[in-house]
Structure formats: C-alpha cells, structure tokens
Protein 1
Amino acid sequence: MKKTFECEAKIENLNTATAFLEETLEEIGCGMKQSMQLCVALEEIFVNIAHYAYAKTDSSGKIIPDTGSGQMSLTLVAEDGKVYMIFEDEGIPYNPLEKADPDVTLSVEDREIGGLGIYMVKKSMDDITYENKDGKNILTLMKKL
Amino acid sequence: MLNINILKDGGKAVYSLEGRLDTSTAPQLEEAVNGNISELNDLSFDFAKLEYISSAGLRVLLSTQKTMNKQGKMVIKNVSEEVMEIFDVTGFSDILTIE
C-alpha cells in the first residue's frame, strides 16, 4: 500500500494530514499505542516543516517562522509489517537528526522545551533517515507494527 | 478538538480535558489556565478523556508546572497508557506529579 498526501506547508493543514494518516492506519489495523506514536511523529515533523522550511530570514540572517510558503508531501507506505512516513519539501536544507537531544533528566526549573518534538520522534520510531536530493529534504520514518 | 471543563472553588481548580492536546489546541488550554492561575494554589488536571498529547501540549504543562511550583501544587490524574508513554519518554513523569 502506498498513498501520498500533498499540501501547502501550513499549520492549518495539519488536521487534514492527521486525518489522512489515521484513516490509513485504521485500514491496516494499527494498534492504539502505535497509532498515537505515528500521529505524534507526524505532528512534530509537519509543524517543523510548516514553521521553518520556507521561512524567510531577516537582515541579520535570523529565521522568522511562518513566513514564506511552499509545498510539502507525505507519502505513507505499509509493507512487511512496517509503516513508512516519507516527508518531502523543497525548503531550506535541514536535517532534524543533527539536532542535539534535550537533557530529559533536568529539574522543572531547568527544563527547556526546545528539541523535545524531534526527540519524541527519534525515541518512538524504529528508523529515521534524512537525505537532501535534487533540492528536496526527504525525511523517512519507519515504524514496525 | 479539545474540550476543557473547569471546576473552580476558591484557590482550588480541576481542569478536565477531553480530546486532543496538540499544536492546534494547546493555545486554548494555555488561555484557560492563564485566566485563573494567579488565584490558584491547588491545580488538578483530569486526563481520563485525553486521547493524545504532543510536544505543544507538554510545553503548556511545563510552563504551568513552573508557575505552580512557586505558589502551590499541581497534579495530573487518570493518565492513559498512551499518554503515560509520552511522559516517560520525555522525562515528564519525573517532573510532574501523576496520581
């Protein structure tokens, strides 16, 4: 099974992308826990792309989230007891796997929220690969069912 | 979709959440908490009907916990197995009081 969903990389399209994923997971009989992990992974990656992939920079080179626009796609593949989520965009080259993991042992006062999203994705998926090819960011997540 | 039911009695409040706490709905909870938090010393969240949480929801819980640490206590009740898994992975089960 292979299906692709395309949309403009905007937060407003997250709910439609989530519905697309949930519908497909239901079709293949995915369990509740894994379904939630896949939905969280979708949200974290989708939000990142929507905020930053096509963002413009100010005069000092600082990225301003939610500026600019462009397309993104999500392809779902289910085969051999595995689900793949492949995210593609043509924005700024960015490998989320290079982001340092947050320290999840710090106290409440010292905890910062940054980086938690991608960390949750890394912890819940069985494999993640990133490549930049033909001007595209291609991030592939794999989860065993 | 997130429904928030608030039972408030003086400095005590119970927030019962139903649905999804995600990027789209986290601002709704943040607003509902901020409306009362200055008066509270005992805040509970009932997660019995919470189906889903992402980092956007964790962000609101963390900032609320930081505030409540200065002025009282905060507990989270009836956490489902799926949501608990997220708390465990992110270390939130160590910094939140879960009953």
Protein 2
Amino acid sequence: MQSLINFTYASTHYRPREGMIAFLLHRISGLATLLFLSIHIVDTSLVYFYPQYYNDFIGLYRLPGFMLAEIALMAGVIYHGLNGFRIALFDLVLPSAWTIQRERLSVRLTILLAAILWLPAGIIMGGNFIGYTFLGWH
Amino acid sequence: MLVALKIKRFDPERKPAAWWSNYKLEAAPGDRVLDLLVRAKDELDGSLTFRRSCAHGICGSDAMRINGTNRLACKTLVRELGSRITVEPLLGMRVEKDLVVDMEPFLASYRSVKPYLINDEPLPADGRERRQSPAERLRFDDTTKCILCGCCTAACPVFWADGEYVGPAAIVQAHRFLFDSRDRGAGEHTAALLDMKGVWRCRTIFQCTLSCPREIKITQAIAEVKQAIVLGK
C-alpha cells in the first residue's frame, strides 16, 4: 500500500512524458484485463457449480455500464498487446534503437495503431450498446 | 527579467515541517537556477539549504526537480524556464532539509554492482597497462559519463514505488564495467541485478534517459545489460 501511495504522489508531482503515459496506460489496461478475466472465469464456472444462476449473471453483460466498459476494455487489450510488442522489440532485439526521438515516435504510433485496430470492434460493440440500451433489442 | 522563484522547503524541527518559500529576483536569461538559489540564500534567507560543489555540471551534487523535471541547477538556464521557476527536492528519496535528500540508499545500490575493474589475471609481460583498442573503449564510452547525480533514479516510477529497486544509475555503472574488454568480473557486477530488485524491474519507461543531464542513453544501456545477462556479452 505504501508503494502505491509513494508512486501516486511522485507520478502526480513529476512532469509526464510519452514513456510515462505509455507505462500508465499499460498498467491500467493490464489490470482492467485481469479484472475482466477474473469475472469471466467466475461466470463460466457458474455453468458447472450453479447453472441456475448462469443466465442471470450473463445478463450483467448487457447492462449499459458494463457494455461501455467492455468497449473501453477492447481498446485496452489491443493497446496492451501492441505496447508489449513495442517494448519487447526494442528491449530484446533493438536496444540501440532506444533513442529519445524513436521512443516518442513509437509511443505515438502504438497509440494510433491501437486506435485504428480498435475502431471496427468499437463500431460493432457501440452498435450493440445502442441497440440493447436504446432500441429494445433482446 | 523578474523571476518568481518558488522553493519547496522542509525542516523536520519546524511546524509545519513542509512549506513553500516565494522569492522575486531580478535575473538575466543567461543566469543559472543555481545562481538564483545562491542569491536567495545569500541575500534573502540564509536558512535555505541545498547541495552544490563544482557548479559546472561535473560533481552532480545539485540535482533537483526544476519545473517538474529532474535537472542540475548549475546546468539549467533561466531562459529555458521562463519567469516562473519552481524548485523541489528529488522524488523517491528521504528529504533531510529543503532541497537536500538522503543519497545513502542510492549510493548503496551503486556499490552493490561493484563499480570497479575486476581482473585477477597477471599483468601483461611488460608489466604496464592492460591495453585496449579505440573500438573496445568506445563500446562503453557513453556510460563512463555518469556523474552519480541521481536525476535518473529519482525520475524512475519503479524506484518511486519501491526504493529498494537498484535503479538506472547503478545499472549504468554495471554497464560501464560489463562492456569493458579488460574486466573479468561480469558475474560480480550483475549479481545484484538478477533478483526482484534488479535490472528486470525496469519497465523501459524512459524517464531516466530524458532526465539525464549528461545525455547518457540509459534505457539503451539497461537493455544491453539485460541482453548481456541472458545471452552473455
């Protein structure tokens, strides 16, 4: 807990640059993915342990807040994968490419590519959100 | 130009222990932040405490957070910052007084990588120095520039979260000897870098490289140390 307090204080008292933003997004998206997977394991396990509750639990996924969170989660998963690949590529294959200019550019390209890759899923999931929430889909 | 200098103060014997001091100083664009600090101490408040020694970017003693970024006060000109300057102590290190932080844990990490040449082989036949080609010397040239100011380690988010992380400065020192063709102590230099507090805690956030006043390619050096540990140099 003290680590989190120290980190939160310091990171809000130091001017952030691209690398810091990339790191924070990576951590947040990783934790969000972990949380979702945990929930997903629970709902799937209901089929075996309490099948009568399974449909009720799955109904949670249709709640507006949950659907919006899933759309954001999709962006997070894509970003997390791409950013992990960026770091692994530089760290394991091309250490000499770790220059300030390339690092800044690579962060921006990673965020841009993640946004482009997320767009189709975002449109489909956004359509579902509108349909189930406002148009009475079942 | 008139500069508004805002300094984070700390005195463990005072209540409250932490406060801000604000000074208005006339300064030329070519003045350094260190010049302003010295003038504030000499002319306005003798209790203001900060470290400085050579005042020319070599000793590394006046590292501090200036307008939110770690810098050396003696290498930062007023013209780079404008008329509003905020000075705070380094993050992640215990503040002793005002801008002076406890560097001992940082120096303990430095010592942990055994930052000296290790070679027990007999001297060359002529009994003189162990020779090295210009190319071999160039291999670790960048990391010889470190002045142990602490700007990089105190800018590292991993270090903020865990002060026992060995930190970028110590890894830079390990790099300097790992890639020295005369050194035979690779295992001893990297022993402190292998555990949970070592080089693998680095998340390549790049803050160290951006804050280094000597412009050392720190993230690259850390990646090379990782490679050396995994693949052998």
